[in-house]
Design a protein that fits this description.
The protein has about 325 residues and is α/β, with parallel strands linked by helices. The protein folds into two domains: about 140 residues, Rossmann fold; about 160 residues, Aspartate/ornithine carbamoyltransferase (Rossmann fold), CATH 3.40.50.1370. It is about 40% helix and about 15% strand. It has twelve helices and nine strands. The strands form two sheets. Strands 7-6-5-8-9 form a five-stranded parallel sheet. The chain has a four-stranded parallel sheet with strand order 2-1-3-4, with helices on both faces. Helix 3 packs across helix 4 and helix 5 packs across helix 6. The longest helix has 20 residues. The protein is globular, with a radius of gyration of 19 Å. The N and C termini lie close together (about 5 Å). The protein binds phosphoric acid mono(formamide)ester. Phosphoric acid mono(formamide)ester binds next to helix 2.
Length: about 325
């Protein structure tokens, strides 16, 4: 693996990454926070969009592996003066950094950067395209909830996951739609018709079953419900359905929560409480919201380690190697 640009990867590669994250999770648990693995390496977090979880956890992950981590954001950098992504990337690479973590509002920006700079690039979320480390941490948290300390080596075979909400605008949904089935999960996409991706000839969306009725899917008693943030900032005044209609049809209300049994309640954050889910759902025993955040550090340690711990510091541009 030279870069991490997509969650599309073979099952064995995904399980190897999740197992490595399990090792990192043990280190977190034991408070042995610093490993020397990336001593002398420098990682730049290049964030052109706001973030709390992803940026902080990449910074923590890098520091716990003893890397030097520099944060560069769109605001406050020369990108705000009109510098192009290519020039920003080449400038950072010219300083001798070892890897770049990038979040951008432009779908495909991390892949372009990977071609241009000849350093390992990690996609921390690009537009409505992908958010691969989010999918990996979601898989980690779900696998850990199901298998506990015996998770190592296992996939998510037969685990029924419903991803609910604004699928069409969601990079989290797109990456999970690639990764979870590769691990054996049975994924159903749920949302208002306007929020579902365009169907393929066989009626599937992103290659998956899609439903518009959350109540019908809850009646099937899924093992996990993954609620997506309604991205009000991407709706540009054309919220369809309305907020009220969304709550009526697709919010995990207290009433729906009571019908859900002990299914895991997942959300990538940040949450719109009262919109995607009630506070009782967000904070209850079945919620994995904070476990997902914790998993984010372990998974990002595993990804940084996998890409940067080797002695070969001369990575070449490799556009085809996006796994
Ligand atoms: N889940 C997620 O990407 O959150 P942030 O935007 O806070 O990084």
């Amino acid at each position: 693996m030279r870069h991490l640009l997509t969650a599309a990867m073979p099952r064995d590669e995904a399980i190897a990454l999740l197992d490595l994250a399990e090792d990192m999770h043990q280190i977190q648990d034991r408070q042995l926070k610093k490993l020397p693995a990336l001593r002398g390496r420098t990682v730049v977090n290049l964030f052109f969009e706001d973030s709390t979880r992803t940026r902080s956890s990449f910074e923590i992950a890098g520091k716990w592996l003893s890397a030097d981590v520099i944060n560069v954001s769109g605001k406050g950098s020369s990108a705000s003066k009109g510098e192009s992504l290519r020039d920003t990337g080449l400038t950072i690479a010219a300083m001798g950094v070892d890897g770049v973590v990038v979040r951008s509002g432009a779908s495909g920006a991390p892949a372009l950067l990977a071609d241009w700079i000849g350093k390992p690039v990690i996609n921390a979320g690009d537009g409505t395209h992908e958010h691969p480390t989010q999918a990996l941490l979601d898989a980690f948290a779900l696998r850990h909830r199901i298998h506990g300390d015996a998770a190592r080596g296992k996939g998510l075979d037969g685990v029924r996951v419903a991803i609910v909400g604004d699928i069409a605008h969601s990079r989290v949904a797109r990456s999970n739609a690639l990764l979870l089935p590769a691990l054996g999960a049975e994924v159903t996409l749920v949302g208002p018709a306007a929020f579902l991706p365009t169907p393929a000839a066989d009626g599937t969306r992103l290659g998956l079953r899609a439903e518009t009725s959350l109540d019908a899917v809850i009646a099937e008693r899924p093992d996990a419900l993954m609620l997506l943030r309604v991205q009000l900032e991407r709706q540009a005044g054309k919220v369809a359905p309305s907020v009220g209609e969304y709550i009526t049809g697709w919010s995990l209300t207290d009433e729906r929560l009571a019908r859900l049994g002990d299914a895991a309640i997942m959300h990538p954050g940040p949450m719109n409480r009262g919109l995607e889910l009630s506070s009782r759902a967000a904070d209850g025993d079945a919620s994995t919201v904070l476990a997902q955040v914790t998993a984010g550090v372990s998974v990002r340690m595993a990804v940084l380690y996998s890409l940067l711990a080797s002695d070969d510091r001369s990575a070449q541009p490799a556009s085809a190697d996006h796994g």
